Amino acid sequence: MNDGDTFADLLTPEGQALLAELRDHDPSDELAAATRLRRTHPAALVSAALGQARLRQRAVAKFGADAGRMYFTPNGVEQSTRATVAAHRARRLAALGVRSLADLCCGIGGDAIALARAGIRVLAVDRDPLACAAARANAEALGLAELIEVRCADVTEVDTAGYDAVFVDPARRSKARGGRIFDPEAYSPPLSWAVEAARKAPVAALKIAPGVPHEALPEDAETEWISDGGDVKEAVVWFGAADRVTPGGRRATLLPAGDSLLGAGLPDPEPGPVGDWLYEPDGAVIRAHLVADVAERLDGRLIDPTIAYITADRLTATPYATAYAITDVLPFHVKKLKALLRERGVGIAVIKKRGSAVEPEELRKKLKLGGGRASCTIFLTRVAGAPTMLLGHPATDPVTPGR
After folding, report:
1. In the prediction, which pLDDT does 186 show?
2. Which of 141, 153, 61, 60 is nearest to 103 (CA)?
3. Where does residue 238 rank: exposed (0-12), middle (13-18), buried (19+ CB within 10 A)?
4. pLDDT attached to residue 397
5. Is residue 381 within 8 Å of 388, Cβ to Cβ?
6. What's the chain's average pLDDT?
7. Which of 20, 136, 198, 341 could bridge 239 with an S-S bond, Cβ 3.0-4.6 Å?
8. Backbone phi, then psi, for 337, in 5-degree steps?
């Protein structure tokens, strides 16, 4: 029996009953559960149901409550878009007037689900029969089958004429290559093919890795870096809709609030001394090379030409960076730091690094923090090229700068 057969069996009444029984399954009890269930069900079906139960539990982080009704493949869980990010992209496509879309490399249908929920009719295409089976099952399970057509085919052979938009999510993982693929031309299909397919559509969006080199980005498109809860999730290359998409533009969007910053192509500000406040830009801002844009809004400067920390003399609210009140600026010296923290009764320390060779956990071991109730944020970085320690507290704490 192949994977497709066992997956199909999960959709039968017997398979559905098994999945319902395993809804709140404890993974640590899997051996006992398998032994018990195999007394009354085929062994292959029990294995498939247990595997699906594990995948659903892993998928909760991306799909929330929907994960308990959805169907996954191991690759589908790893490669699918987080639901909050997919919903953001679907809203933007809907705002661009898209009502029909070809979703190429659809996987288990995570993006197709978000698009359909935004009222967009979707042709979802993938060459993996098992992924297509999961996508069809997901459309049915979530009541979206009327809006989602799933087709098992090579995306390079699909005619997308007649659709308002194209969305391409090339595979960026490879078993043969041992994990993630960093060369955009090694994607499946290659980025160059995806770009040409996008240029033929009225509107298009290409999902790519957030670490893509800027020189690999097409200048006739806008690239948007998206973070969710502070974690950078992906980059999207947007084509078409000239009144709503900026060719050559670089954008950072921060979820869940949805704040979005389009860069103005500013040069980096001149570095200067550390002020009372330090700002740590969101990862999407850094990936989009928009640190200068945020610094201008803060009337700030860099602490070092090569470090993405902004400093300023006054506090300014911004969604694009986290602010810290700085209390100390010291040359890097472990013994002096240890003595200072002990003197202040610091028992809780958040250690961050940027531009430092020191590993935070190694430093934590050396500090041997005691049971003090005070807390502190320690930045290991460079200021004007010199290894430096900055001590402070989040601006949300009831602490003011004190140097």
Report:
1. 76
2. 153
3. buried
4. 67
5. yes
6. 92
7. 198
8. -65, -45
C-alpha distances out from residue 83 to 34, 73, 87, 99, 147, Å: 31, 16, 6, 20, 18
DSSP 8-class letter at 366: H
List the one residue out of 159, 110, 116, 157 whose CA is nearest residue 135.
110
CA distance from start to end of the chain: 71
Dihedral of alpha carbons 151, 156, 162, 167, sign: positive
SS3 356: coil
- Does the global pTM surpass 0.85? yes
For residue 241, the Cα-to-chain-centroid distance in whole angstroms is 25
- pLDDT reading at 157 higher than 80: yes
* 327 Cβ contact list (under 8 Å, min separation 6): 391, 392, 393, 399, 401, 402, 403
Tokens 């297509």 label which residue? Answer: 132
Q: How far apart are CA 161 and CA 127, in angstroms?
A: 19
- Out of 73-77, 139-143, 251-255, which region has the weakest mean confidence (pLDDT)? 73-77
- Dihedral, 105, 110, 111, 112 alpha carbons, nearest 10: 80
**What are the tens digits of pLDDT across the range 310-357?**
999 999 999 999 999 999 999 999 999 999 999 999 999 999 999 999
Query: Are residues 315 and 399 in contact, defined by beta-carbon separation less than 8 angstroms?
Result: no
User: Assign residue 111 a region: left if phi > 0, alpha if psi is -120 to 50, beta otherwise?
Assistant: alpha
DSSP letters spanning 14-35: HHHHHHHHTTT--GGGHHHHHH
